[in-house]
Amino acid sequence: MLELRCTVRNCGRPLESKSTAGGRRGLGCDGGHRFDQAKEGYWNLTQPQDKKSLNPGDNRDAVLARHRWLQRGHSVSLAQSIRDWVTGSGEQPTVLDLGCGDGSFGPLVFPDQPQGYCGIDLSKPAIKLASRHWPAATWVLANADRGLPVMDASVDFVMSLFGRRPVSEIKRVLTPSGCCIVAVPAEDDLIELREVVQSRGDRRSRVDAIVEEMQEFGLRCVERKQWRASVEIGQEEIEDALAMTYRARRRSEKSRIASIDRSRVTLSADLMRFTLG
Ligand SMILES: C[S@@+](CC[C@H](N)C(=O)[O-])C[C@H]1O[C@@H](n2cnc3c(N)ncnc32)[C@H](O)[C@@H]1O
Ligand SMILES: [Zn+2]
Nearest to residue 100, comparing CAs of 121, 71, 122? Predict the structure, then answer.
């Protein structure tokens, strides 16, 4: 299992399994800090300051929109493309999935390997869905922007799939032979919808900026590829696709969404693999 560490300010000691007198499962450190397991099975390692975070993670509507989207299977071939980078990595690699959302990618990318897998998200609705979906894995409610709750050099794979990228922390937690896999929307992802809603769809690749940012911290891009698919979707799926990626704020944008009842759309993501040194 992944070696979790205490999130109390200035502590950072290893967390170990401790049971309370009532038989409830808990985690604790040698500094006397304790964390109980939520009834859904996840660990709440947030600290009081995380509740005031300007970025509290995705709200319920966005989480449910992405959950419905992923349940329709639109990202299964994307997961397979990521899986091609991790197969042959030993029996139980340690994995940290940053901003894991509803947890759909974990069992698709690391099937039969839940013991080493840990998903982190700051959204309670997301981590609850994840814990129910794959209970054998470890799920943690925590703020990935405030220092990752895992020990130094203990993670074989860090995944950031459309999620957070705290680069210096990613470097700290990776094992010397570990790697970090990053996925971001490619420039034409959902372009057909964005063109209607925003009048013009911005086409902007994030790859060069991410490669440069990671390189500054000593993480070298050793492989990259693009995943693409084209799907025909109806009104409800269109609304979900937009709700999980791009929130239409103005009334004119909302009515433009309502006016599209079917569309063939491009799904695309840029995938990058980074190693230390
Ligand atoms: C676009 S979603 C991607 C979810 C998942 N990786 C997937 O591809 O389905 C981004 C996720 O990052 C989470 N998130 C945002 N800020 C966070 C933070 N500071 N710490 C941890 N997770 C965060 C959100 O709650 C959301 O679930
Ligand atoms: Zn502690």
Answer: 121
Domains of the chain (ranges plus CATH)? 16-276 (3.40.50.150)
CB 95 within 8 A of CB 116: yes
Please give the radius of gyration of the chain, using alpha carbons only, rounded to the nearest integer: 19
Q: How far apart are CA 261 and CA 146, in angstroms?
A: 42
The amino acid present at 50, given as its one-letter code, is D
Please state the atom number of ligand 1 nearest to the C-alpha of residue 159: 6
C-alpha 6 to ligand 1 mean position (Å)? 21
Ligand nearest to the CA of 15: 2
pLDDT tens figures, 139-165: 999 999 989 999 999 999 999 999 999
Q: Are 180 and 274 in contact (CB under 8 A)?
A: yes
* C-alpha span between 274 and 207 (Å, rounded): 12
pTM exceeds 0.85:
yes
